[in-house]
Amino acid sequence: MKSIVNFVGAGPGAQDLITVRGRRLLEEADLVLYAGSLVDAGHLACCKPSCRRLDSAGMDLAAQVECLREAAEAGQKVVRLHTGDPAMYGAINEQIRGLAEHGIQSVIVPGVSSVFAAAAALGCELTCPDGSQSVVLTRTPGRTPMPAAEDAATFARTGATLAFFLSTGNIASLSDRLMKEGGLAPETPAAVVYRASWPDERVLRGSLADIAAQVEAAGIGRQALILVGEALRPQASSSRLYDARFSHGYRNHLPAEHFDGLCALYAFTDKGLALAREMAAGLDLPVRIFSTRPVSEEEAAAGIVHLSGNGFDAALRANWRQFAAHVFISATGIAVRKIAPLLEDKSTDPAVLACPESGSHIISLTSGHLGGANRLARRIARLTGGQAVIGTATDVNGLPAFDEVAARLHARVLTVNAVRPLNAALLSGESITFCGPREIYDAHFAATGQVVLAARAEDIRTPRAVLWDAEGTVPAGVEHLDITSRALVLGLGCRRGTAPGTLRREAEACLARLGIAPRQIARLASCDIKADEEAILALAREWGIPLDLHPAEKLDEVPVPTPSATVRERVGTASVSEAACLLSAGKGGRLLQPKIVTEGVTLALARLPHLAGPSRERGRVLVVGLGSGDEAQITPQVSAAIADSDVLAGYGPYLDFIRQRIGNREVIQNGMMGEVERCRRTLESAAAGHTVCMVCSGDPGILAMAGLLFELRSREAAFHGIPITVLPGITAANIAAASLGAPLQNGFSLVSLSDLLVPADEVRRNLRAVAASALPVTLYNPAGRKRRHLLEEALRIFREERGEDLLCAWVKNAGRPQEERWVGRLADLPADDVDMSTLVLMGSARTRYEDGVLYEARGYVEKYLDGKA
Predict the structure, then answer these.
(1) What are the pLDDT digits (tens) for 477-497?
(2) Rg (CA), the chain
(3) Packing angle between helix 500-513 and helix 534-543, nearest 10 degrees?
């Protein structure tokens, strides 16, 4: 008979938490070697009278192994009793190896770990859907060091629930590290459970900011477990496992059945309505049911909307853009006739499906790939037990259509008209180059054998190519499909004063649940009352994403699925996050995720529309200058460009100058720091065939948008060849000079003091160079509220080069009704009055100030008049 030692977990402390198997082995044991310092001796009461009970506290490893070996070889039943579960910090490996050297087998009987007893004492789960789906069991270094990679701060950055064993003595330094290095907010929930499940169990609850002080006050030094994480928060969100709408099994995790967005289900009979309710319960998607048969009070309370037969067409028109999918539970002919007047383009049409009342066939009618109708058909078929009817050629032939892969990965197709020829080439077996992320190529296209990978656009050698997040110049003659991962708008709302860490955590959790990375967000959107909300501004800075801030009155005009009367009362609009992301997504944009409210944060997600692209006739961009914004300063050429454009683009305050001219035309508008995204959206609109007028103050080619538009056109393949025309305007230097007299008539230098885009050292070099010249100098962007150092340096440089008696001036709000002016000596210049609306002018040796006019002597007097005097 083989000698055996049973390693048994006694559980966390309470005698009745040992397993039935463990208790039976104790009852039968001839020898029990137990950890007396940690295991309740009450466990041994069940042992038979002849059983030897030995405390291992005073034994080293060799003594323990010898004791166990001797009894096992004598044919006795041996139990090595450990606290908790032997697998956690049980030091059993060395015992097992020592016994194995003597041919003795070890059997492990698991026990309840103290981490689970601590969770029970706290009355919570260690995981929650919106907080953490992982638990890290670890410790801090003491006499036993920790591996370098197993750092507490590193674990904290994962967002997992953290459980620290053997670490209570280090809790102050641990809390500090988790906040400073781990990125956890001071208000992150934390708890300490002392001797979980023992009669003297103690529970301390708090946050990372105060838990250490609580432990010190309680005098707890050992035999306690530390727990940290959002899952400990009492109001942590609930699992959807038992939600009636949750679709059980694996079906909704299949990429071929993945679908996002609002679904409208249309039922025309009692049987059809029953099937619609079954679909709504199983899809695990936001669904609205519409029925042409009368609905009961109970059905109305459940959200089912009654549509009269006469009102159906109007309701469908109203729903068309609000829903990502329309499912007709009816004959296919009904669906086809109803949607025919509404169909426009495959890049913008929603998914439409038809399904008989039996659920036997689910037919994908429109937007099979980009709209996801094929995937939704498969998903519904699995629910009804029917068959998905899909006719797109690539699906029939088992090939990965390029637009289908883009849609699955939430990417944005910038050249929809190139989809057909590229997919046709795929079907015909032609060679196609993929220029983009290697992981996308390997996952979807490498197995075709005909799609080859290129690192750069310049390396393409095939007649057709797919460019996915690719930059560079495509060789002439190559037909290409352009795709970008930045395809989504995240709408944001939050309680005033929300911590930046809280907003970031909630946003990341929301995106993670949808399988989306922050790099796929093209821009953020909110209400303009959040212009000073640090949490939102910090998220935009951290992710490097433009932020759009929309007026409440504009947001209130956007139809949304979940309006709120409370929000309207407080903010002036029934929706912030949903309306903001839809407004930023623009025409053809569609809501992907209705608002989620958690932790004082409201989030919603919209998808930017796919675009037609450059293979068809392209639009153009007109870049115009409005001068100061005064109607009298707008040139006839610029005025005509504004009138002839389909879309107007610009910084909000500049668009306000011409707001009365815009009418109902589409507007591309955002705030400061949004210049790149504004120009990209302008080019995207032009690529879709529109004439877009980008308005700038002053002249568009001087510290404005003209150069950026040219740069983006050159860098991004999707924009190559878009015509850009620059129409001049009156720059601030000319307007200010005219207001002062004629201080620039011998020529002048123009320098911007902003170091936002140009390094400060380069600005300083420019200042020294122009100060050493004989020309007057105009200083643009002289100083903001916080950025004034370069203005101070500029004044010092000019005092050194030209002296304190130099005539100079500034003009604030040049050319506008609120214009202000100052003229005087450099020594007297009131620098504190200078702001970003001010232009500062430094005179030259020729500058004169007479009769309230600042001008420069032209040289005519010296050459033509002095000799005749």
Answers:
(1) 889 999 999 999 999 999 999
(2) 36
(3) 60
**What does the buried/exposed string (b/e) look like for 189-199 if buried means 16 or more CB atoms within 10 Å of the residue's CB?**
bbbbbbbbbbe
Contact 516, 488 (CB under 8 A): yes
Q: What is the pTM of this model?
A: 0.49
Give the closest residue to 355 by CA, choosing from 273, 260, 245. 273
pLDDT for position 238: 54
Structure tokens at 785: 């509220």
Q: Do domains 402-484 and 488-607 have the same CATH topology?
A: no
Instruction: Please give the single-letter amino acid code of residue 745.
Output: Q
Q: How far apart are CA 829 and CA 819, in angstroms?
A: 17
In this prediction, residue 250 carries a pLDDT of 34
Residues 778/854, Cβ–Cβ less than 8 Å: no
User: What CATH number is given for 488-607 in this structure?
Assistant: 3.30.420.180
CATH number belonging to the domain at 402-484, selected among 3.40.1390.40, 3.30.1330.30, 3.40.50.300, 3.40.190.80: 3.40.1390.40
Percent of the chain exceeding pLDDT 90 equals: 66
Q: How far is CA 216 from CA 186, 224, 759, in A?
A: 18, 13, 51
Distance between CA atoms of residues 76 and 98, nearest Å: 18
Name the CATH superfamily, with its identifier, for domain 620-727. Tetrapyrrole methylase, N-terminal domain (3.40.1010.10)
Residue type, 389: V
Look up tokens 């492990």; give the residue. Answer: 108
Nearest to 451 by CA among 401, 520, 383: 401
**Residue range 342-362, pLDDT digits in tens:** 998 877 889 999 999 999 999
> Which residues fall within 8 angstroms of residue 770, CB to CB, at 6 or more apart?
749, 751, 777
Topology (CATH level 3) of domain 251-391: Rossmann fold (3.40.50)
* Amino acid identity, position 85: D
Q: Which pLDDT tens digit goes with each residue over 689-739?
A: 889 999 999 999 999 999 999 999 888 877 888 899 999 999 999 999 999
Helix (H, G, I), strand (E, B) or coil at 125: coil
**Residue boundaries of the structural domains of the chain:** 4-112, 115-232, 251-391, 402-484, 488-607, 620-727, 733-856
Q: Please count the other Cβ atoms lying within 10 Å of the Cβ belonging to residue 472.
A: 16
Distance, in Å, from the CA atom of 248 to the CA atom of 24, rounded to the nearest integer, reads: 38
Cβ atoms within 10 Å of 458's Cβ, excluding its own: 11
Distance CA 305, CA 284 (A): 19
- Spatial neighbors of 66 by CB under 8 A, at least 6 apart, are none
Q: Which fold has domain 115-232?
A: 3.30.950
Q: Which CATH number fits domain 733-856: 3.30.70.260, 3.30.950.10, 3.40.50.720, 3.90.550.10?
A: 3.30.950.10
The topology (CATH level 3) of 4-112 is Cobalt-precorrin-4 Transmethylase; domain 1 (3.40.1010)
593: which strand partners? 605
CB-based contacts of 754, cutoff 8 Å, min separation 6: 763, 780, 781, 787
- Give Cα separations from 466 to 216, 289, 452, 826, 837 (angstroms): 62, 39, 10, 60, 46
pLDDT in tens, 327-347: 999 999 999 999 999 998 877
Give CA–CA dist 607/628, Å, rounded: 36
What is the rounded CA–CA span in Å between residue 634 and residue 518?
Answer: 41
DSSP conformation letters of 759-811: -HHHHHHHHHHHHTSSS-EEEES---SS--HHHHHHHHHHHHHH-TT-EEEEE
Rounded to an integer, the average pLDDT of 519-534 is 92
Q: Is the dihedral of CA 644, 647, 651, 655 positive or negative?
A: positive
- Residues 824 and 740: beta-carbon distance below 8 Å: no
Which residues lie closer than 8 Å to 469 by C-beta, 6 or more apart? 436, 437, 483, 484, 485
Band of residue 237 on the pLDDT scale cut at 50, 70, 90: low
Q: Answer whether residue 625 shows pLDDT above 60.
A: yes
